[in-house]
Specification:
The protein is of the alpha/beta class and 435 residues long. The protein has two domains: 267 residues, no CATH class; 53 residues, no CATH class. Helices cover 17% and strands 37% of the residues. The strands form two sheets. Strands 1, 4, 5, 7, 8, 10, 12, 14, 16, 18 and 20 form an eleven-stranded mixed beta sheet that branches. The chain has a ten-stranded mixed beta sheet with strand order 3-2-6-9-11-13-15-17-19-21, covered by helices on one side. Helix 2 runs antiparallel to helix 4, helix 5 crosses helix 6 and helix 6 packs antiparallel against helix 7.
C-alpha cells in the first residue's frame, strides 16, 4: 500500500511530475528510474519501525520541502572551494554543484585514451552501464536508495582498463548550495577491470549554511586482481542531512580499501555493503567519525563472505563531544561455502563529554566451520592515568587531552596512503577538537 508523504517534493504526485530524465536517455535508464520510483512509492521514507533504520533519528527532515534541480550561481568564487581541496594533490578533478557537473571548475586534462573518466550523464551510452548501473543497489530494502535511483542527477563514471595503474588519483567533489534548502542525488560508478589499480576520493560538502538534503550512492566493481583505494569524505555543514551508501563487488584476488571520514551534517546515515565473491578477495574498511553539539551519525556496514579464502579487516573509530550521539552497526556474514574466512571487526569510541552517547552493534553471522573471525567494541573516556603521565612531564592538561584525543584518531589517518589527504584531514581534526 502506498504511503502518503507529508512534504511537497516527495509526494507521489510531485515525484511523477519531476521527470528527472532527458529526451536522449536510453530505454534501460528510464526503466531503472521507473523501478526506483515504484519501490519508493511502495515504501515511503523509513521510520524507526524499519529494522534497517531503527536507530536513525530522522526527526522531521523527511517532512521538509526542498528544491530540486537548482542551478548554482554562474560565477562561483574558487576560494570557497579551498577548504574542500587538498594542496599538493595532483588529481583528476570533477566538481558537481547541486548534482550537475561544473566544467569550468573541473580538471580532466591528460586523461589516457584507454581510460574512461567522465560524468555519468556523458557516459550513458558506454556499454558497461546497462549491466553495471543499479546492479548493486537494493532498492527494495532501502527507500532512500530507491529515491536516488529515480532522481539521480550526475556523478563520476570511471572505468580503468585491464592492468592499468592510474597515475593520478581521481577526486570527485559534490557541493550543495542555494538560497533555500536543496535536495541532491549524486550517483557514482567505479569499474576496475582485471589487474587495474586506482585511488578515488569522494567529498560531499556545502557552500553555505542552509539545511540541504543529499542522498548519494556509489557502486564499485573490482575485477580479478584489481586494487582500489576509496576515500569517502563527508564535510557538509552541520545543518544538513546526508544519506550515503556504497555497494562494492570484489572478485578473485582483488583488494578494496575504504577510508570513510564523517565530520559534518546535523543528521548523517552512511552505509557500506561489500560482497567478497571469489577466493582471495580482500577488503579493509577504515572509518572515523567526529560528532559534536547535537549531531547524529549512523554508520552501517555489511561484509558478505561468499567464497573461501577471503579476508576482512574493519576498524571504525568515533570521537563524540557535547550532546552528540552515534550509531555503529556492523555485520560480517560468512556463508556456508566460505571456508577459511579470516575476518576482524572492531568499533572503538571516545566520549569527551558526559552527555555524548554511542550505540555500538558489531555482529558476526557464520555458517561455515573453518573460519577465524572476531569482533569487538569499546566505548569510554580518556584514560586519566595517561593524562596524569603527560602532565607529570610538564605538559598542560588541555594540551595533554588534545594529544591523547588526536592519537586516538591517528590510527585511522595513518592508513591513508595519499599524504596530502592525510595531512589536510589531520589539520582539520586538530581544529575541531574541543581542547
Amino acid at each position: 500500500m502506498e504511503k502518503t508523504l507529508e512534504n511537497h517534493i516527495f509526494s507521489p504526485a510531485h515525484l511523477e511530475s519531476i521527470n528527472p530524465g532527458s529526451p536522449g536517455d536510453p530505454a534501460w535508464l528510464s526503466e531503472l528510474r521507473r523501478r526506483g520510483l515504484d519501490w519508493f512509492r511502495e515504501m515511503g521514507f523509513p521510520t524507526r519501525r524499519d529494522e534497517h533504520w531503527r536507530f536513525f533519528k530522522s526527526g522531521d527532515v523527511f517532512k521538509r520541502d526542498y528544491a530540486y534541480e537548482v542551478a548554482p550561481a554562474e560565477s562561483i568564487d574558487e576560494n570557497a572551494l579551498a577548504p574542500y581541496l587538498f594542496p599538493g594533490l595532483d588529481a583528476h578533478q570533477l566538481i558537481f554543484i547541486n548534482g550537475r557537473l561544473h566544467e569550468g571548475l573541473s580538471d580532466l586534462k591528460t586523461i589516457p585514451d584507454s581510460l574512461h573518466l567522465a560524468s555519468l550523464r556523458e557516459s550513458l551510452h558506454e556499454e558497461i552501464l546497462p549491466q553495471k548501473l543499479g546492479g548493486l543497489v537494493e532498492v527494495d530494502e532501502h527507500a532512500p536508495l530507491a529515491l536516488n535511483t529515480y532522481l539521480m542527477q550526475d556523478g563520476l563514471c570511471l572505468r580503468v582498463p585491464r592492468n592499468m595503474e592510474l597515475a593520478r588519483p581521481v577526486h570527485v567533489l559534490h557541493l550543495s548550495m542555494g538560497a533555500d534548502p536543496v535536495a541532491v542525488f549524486p550517483r557514482n560508478i567505479i569499474c576496475l577491470e582485471e589487474g587495474a589499480r586506482a585511488s578515488v576520493l569522494e567529498t560531499y560538502a556545502s557552500l553555505d549554511k542552509q539545511a540541504h538534503f543529499s542522498v548519494a550512492a556509489t557502486e564499485v566493481y573490482c575485477e580479478s586482481g584489481s586494487q582500489l583505494d576509496h576515500y569517502r569524505l563527508q564535510r557538509e555543514n552541520e545543518s544538513s542531512t546526508h544519506i550515503g551508501w556504497a555497494g562494492v563487488h570484489v572478485n578473485r584476488d582483488a583488494h578494496y580499501e575504504s577510508h570513510e571520514v564523517s565530520l559534518g551534517g546535523a543528521k548523517l546515515r552512511r552505509g557500506t555493503q561489500v560482497q567478497l565473491a571469489d577466493p582471495g578477495a580482500f577488503c579493509a574498511l577504515n572509518g572515523l567519525y567526529l560528532a559534536r553539539g547535537e549531531q547524529h551519525m549512523d554508520h552501517q556496514t555489511r561484509v558478505e563472505h561468499q567464497s573461501p579464502d577471503c579476508r576482512t579487516e574493519e576498524l571504525y573509530k568515533g570521537i563524540l563531544d557535547g550532546k552528540a550521539d552515534a550509531v555503529f552497526g556492523g555485520l560480517i556474514l560468512v556463508e556456508q561455502d566460505a571456508q577459511r574466512t579470516d575476518a576482524l571487526q572492531s568499533n572503538r569510541n571516545l566520549l569527551l563529554s558526559e552527555d555524548a552517547k554511542v550505540t555500538s552493534l558489531p555482529m558476526l553471522e557464520i555458517y561455515a566451520d573453518d573460519v577465524k573471525c572476531s569482533h569487538g567494541s569499546t566505548t569510554g573516556q580518556l584514560d586519566e592515568r595517561q593524562v596524569f603521565f603527560l602532565r607529570s612531564r610538564g605538559i598542560g592538561e588541555t594540551q595533554a587531552r588534545a594529544m591523547l584525543t588526536f592519537a586516538f584518531a591517528r590510527e585511522i589517518l595513518e592508513k591513508m596512503d595519499l599524504e596530502p589527504v592525510r595531512s589536510r584531514l589531520s589539520e582539520e581534526l586538530r581544529q575541531r577538537l574541543p581542547y
